Amino acid sequence: MRHRRLITLIFATTAISIGYSPAASGDFGTNPSDDAGTITAEVSVTTGAGGGGGGPRCQWVVRHDVGIPDVVSNAPATWPRTAPNGDVFDLYEKRCPGEDSAWVEVLRQDPQADLLPLALRDLKQKKLPTPEPQFLALDAEFGWAYVTVPVDFRVGNGLAPVSVTASIGPVWATVTAAPSKVTFDPGEPAGHTVSCSAAGAAAGYDPAIPGECSYAYVDSSAISSNGRSFTTTMGVEWSISWTSSTGAGGALPAFTTSSSAPLAVAEIQALVTCTGPRPEQGGCG
Q1: Bridge partners of 17?
Q2: 20 to 30 Å CA-CA from 118: which of 43, 104, 150, 274?
Q3: Are residues 163 and 45 in the same domain?
Q4: Is residue 24 part of a domain?
Q5: Any bridge partners for residue 47, and if so which?
Q6: φ and ψ at 44, to 5 degrees?
Q7: Alpha helix (H) ranges present in the chain?
Q8: For residue range 226-273, what is the model confidence (pLDDT) as tens digits?
Q9: Distance CA 23, CA 54 (A)
Q10: Tens digit of pLDDT for each residue in 44-64?
């Protein structure tokens, strides 16, 4: 019988490094470090519908029933194995397409405690986009909005769910953020914040019918602090959930990304000219 080397994977929070992989969520690879006795936690990202889907490239099979002394020398005979310091190790057979299978001893992980914080931090700090405000129904020549005329707002860079998976060997945790609501602060003193659905912020535009993501200004931006434009703020609220290799998961607190953009607002001044007392002459005398 051919011997296969036993690889021990130890997760050490003080020595962890995050590697970014273009692999789809669910590709749970490992990178054992021969000199440090630690592994790299892989973080993979999926953008679009779904999240957490797709099967793993490698299959991990728990093998607590194998006669390991006949396969790997100088190894414990039974698993789970408890180290003198109390750490518990499980034995897996790692099967990857086109590769010889390998015995892998993995320090037992808690996805929620050990991997979820890594995935969540990466999602919030690097993967969730800040919205790019886009305004519709602006003056074609001057690019400003008009008082009392609804101006539709959109998220110019689009909205799509984002998933991040952190994995160590066969253990993984995936967090998924889905856009749920868009808020708009017009920046005018007499204004108020409005909100609409994420679908409304990505909908098409009909100039005859203001969309659910629209706002009508009360004042012109001549009253703003700079006398030119209001500072608007757009926010996207993301609903966040998580799943894991152990089946644990659930909802997490929502998270908001936001950005600001200037918007000039003009007021149309109407001039009435009287030419006579009769209605057909202007209606004034």
Answers
A1: none
A2: 104
A3: no
A4: yes
A5: 162
A6: -120, 150
A7: 116-122
A8: 999 999 999 999 999 999 999 999 999 999 999 999 999 999 865 445
A9: 10
A10: 565 554 444 333 478 888 877
